[in-house]
């Protein structure tokens, strides 16, 4: 874990049990704001450890939050023990949930504006095209913005060449990455799987957008109850960080004498009280199977291409043909 509480699970658990939040005043080297008052910043010493976890020659291809992913993966692999090293790198799966709200950032434009000089008339359209389409003043902008940037960096640093997937669908991506990993293991596509989730909301334009929509608490006062996943939520404070875990089949763990920390049976997301949600979509799957005389025990999984929007996913589930033993990873809304 690489979180505002620090590195590893213990500081996070201590913060939970002690009721001590890890939020701090919002700080950014480029932007000063009075409206975004607090943020969940990863501690400076952990940021440096994340950077050091990436070989020097590969740092130009990543961003601070992808470095966090590399460090979280490093710690998860270490926790897995000798079982990881015994698996061929072509049988190591990697399933990544990546946030894409930080690149390209306002910092990219700030550097460009500085180089163009102060007091000059600027064509913002041309500047945007130069920066985003042609690489411009930062030739790695496009690489940083790729949806598989985190997956690529983690796979190179930690030598994973097996089954993989990179997902970028907000909060639902983490759940889907976990589902994708378990499916790969159950179907023998990999022998061990690394699941990584990483991202940051620390991009001024992104934070400003959430503020305008009323998603953020105005300050650290009030009753102190953020209730981020409750229908009576009064906002939240955004954060950054990364988490990683290693999964393997229980029989393989038993065979090598390992003591599993937890057994993952399935992933379930339950909707709240504010209208259609994941549970509503799941009922559509059940209805479709029933209409075609198929029992759930006959299926390995269901193939769907949900877009994290019930309005579009539900109608599609109505017209999906029956299928047996396919892949199933609907990208579903997951809290906020």
Automatic annotation (TrEMBL):
Keywords, ordered alphabetically: Transferase
Pathway(s) per entry: Lipid metabolism; mycolic acid biosynthesis
Protein name stated in the entry: Beta-ketoacyl synthase, N-terminal domain protein
PANTHER family: 3-OXOACYL-[ACYL-CARRIER-PROTEIN] SYNTHASE, MITOCHONDRIAL, POLYKETIDE SYNTHASE-RELATED
Pfam families documented for this protein: ketoacyl-synt
Gene3D superfamilies cross-referenced by the UniProt entry: 3.40.47.10
Domain Beta-ketoacyl synthase-like N-terminal stretches: 2-253
GO MF assignments: 3-oxoacyl-[acyl-carrier-protein] synthase activity
InterPro entries, per the entry: Beta-ketoacyl_synthase, Ketoacyl_synth_N, Thiolase-like
GO terms (BP aspect): fatty acid biosynthetic process
């Amino acid at each position: 874990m690489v979180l505002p509480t620090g590195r590893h699970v213990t500081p996070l658990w201590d913060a939970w049990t002690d009721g001590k939040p890890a939020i701090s005043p919002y700080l950014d080297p480029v932007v000063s704001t009075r409206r975004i008052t607090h943020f969940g910043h990863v501690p400076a010493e952990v940021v440096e450890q994340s950077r050091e976890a990436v070989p020097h020659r590969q740092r130009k291809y990543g961003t601070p939050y992808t470095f966090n992913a590399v460090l979280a993966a490093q710690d998860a692999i270490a926790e897995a023990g000798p079982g990881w090293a015994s698996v061929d790198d072509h049988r190591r799966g990697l399933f990544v949930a990546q946030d894409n709200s930080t690149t390209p950032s306002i910092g990219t434009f700030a550097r460009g504006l500085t180089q163009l000089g102060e007091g000059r008339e600027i064509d913002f359209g041309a500047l945007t095209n130069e920066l985003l389409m042609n690489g411009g003043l930062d030739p790695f902008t496009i690489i940083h913005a790729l949806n598989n940037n985190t997956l690529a960096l983690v796979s190179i640093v930690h030598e994973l060449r097996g089954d993989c997937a990179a997902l970028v669908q907000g909060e639902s991506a983490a759940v889907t990455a976990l589902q994708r990993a378990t499916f790969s293991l159950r179907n023998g596509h990999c022998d061990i799987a690394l699941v990584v989730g990483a991202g940051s909301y620390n991009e001024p334009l992104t934070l400003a957008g959430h503020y305008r929509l009323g998603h953020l608490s105005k300050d650290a006062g009030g009753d102190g109850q953020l209730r981020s996943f409750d229908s009576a939520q009064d906002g939240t404070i955004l954060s950054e960080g990364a988490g990683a875990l290693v999964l393997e089949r229980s029989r393989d763990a038993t065979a090598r004498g390992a003591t599993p920390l937890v057994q993952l049976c399935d992933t379930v997301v339950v909707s709240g009280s504010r209208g259609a949600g994941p549970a509503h979509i799941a009922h559509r799957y059940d209805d479709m199977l029933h209409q075609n005389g198929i029992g759930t025990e006959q299926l390995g999984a269901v193939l769907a291409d949900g877009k994290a929007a019930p309005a579009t996913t539900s109608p599609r589930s109505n017209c999906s043909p029956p299928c047996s033993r396919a892949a199933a990873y609907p990208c579903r809304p997951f809290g906020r």
